[in-house]
Design goal:
The complex is a heterodimer.
Chain A (H helix, E strand, L loop, with lengths): L2 E3 L4 E5 L4 E3 L2 E3 L4 E8 L5 E7 L5 E3 L5 E5 L4 E6 L8 E9 L6 E2 L3 E6 L1
Parallel strand pairs in A: 2-12
Antiparallel strand pairs in A: 1-4, 3-9, 5-6, 5-10, 7-8, 8-9, 10-11, 10-12
Chain B lengths: L3 E4 L2 E4 L5 E7 L5 E8 L3 E10 L2 E4 L6 E3 L9 E3 L8 E8 L10 E2 L3 E5 L1
Parallel strand pairs in B: 2-11
Antiparallel strand pairs in B: 1-3, 3-8, 4-5, 4-9, 5-6, 7-8, 9-10, 9-11
The chains are: A mainly beta, B mainly beta.
């Protein structure tokens, strides 16, 4: 079955510390992978996406993610977290030939001053 | 450029009432969709449309109806609201055809409570 797993429901980091949010997927076709961020009371905004080529992709706000096909993972990273990064982060997968996207359950990030 | 606009932002209904959540986009996107967001369950697709007059079911379509008479608008109808439909609803659109590598543009959501 197709699925996206975000194993961490909540993560707390100190401002200035590094961050890694985990995402694993199960998808039969070659996946397109996305990370979205949701600030409180807002809709989701795209951080970055992977669909081909270089497996390390850069996004907005200093985020990056690495696609590892052998591990079926697409983890999101940031070297130094800012207080404004506190939000909920969603990993999602799409595929060629489909109009449907599958979202993970989200990881809520708290940033300590 | 307004993007994706959802109305209302908040709504309280009584069980059995009907209502329509509105969604409009001004980006000429063919693809539009509705998601519901529940704690611990992420976003689940309710219905989607790939153009005027074309709609299809997503993962959780029961209790919801949609139609697409124009490219811009994609309303979601609750015919007889139930407490299980208490949720936050998001409308999303994207450009492109039958290829899932395009990003979704989301509205700011509608928080619905059914008593």
């Amino acid at each position: 079955a197709q699925s996206v797993t975000q194993p961490d429901i909540h993560i707390t980091v100190s401002e200035g510390a590094s961050l890694e949010l985990r995402c694993n997927y199960s998808y039969g076709a070659t996946p397109y992978l996305f990370w979205y961020v949701q600030s409180p009371g807002q809709g989701l905004q795209l951080l970055l996406k992977y669909f081909s080529g270089d497996t390390l992709v850069q996004g907005i706000k200093g985020f990056e993610a690495e696609f590892k096909r052998s591990q079926s993972s697409f983890n999101l990273r940031k070297p130094s977290v800012h207080w404004s990064d506190a939000a909920e982060y969603f990993c999602a997968v799409g595929a060629s030939g489909t109009y449907k996207y599958i979202f993970g359950t989200g990881t809520r990030l708290k940033v300590l001053a | 450029n307004a993007g994706v606009t959802q109305t209302p932002k908040f709504q309280v209904l009584k069980t059995g009432q009907s209502m329509t959540l509105q969604c409009a986009q001004d980006m000429n996107h063919e693809y539009m969709s509705w998601y519901r967001q529940d704690p611990g369950m992420g976003l689940r697709l309710i219905h989607y449309s790939v153009g005027a007059g074309i709609t299809d079911q997503g993962e959780v379509p029961n209790g919801y109806n949609v139609s697409r008479s124009t490219t811009e608008d994609f309303p979601l109808r609750l015919l007889s609201a139930a407490p299980s439909q208490t949720s936050v609803y998001f409308c999303a659109s994207r450009a492109g055809g039958r290829d899932g590598n395009e990003k979704l543009f989301f509205g700011s959501g509608t928080q619905l409570s059914v008593l």
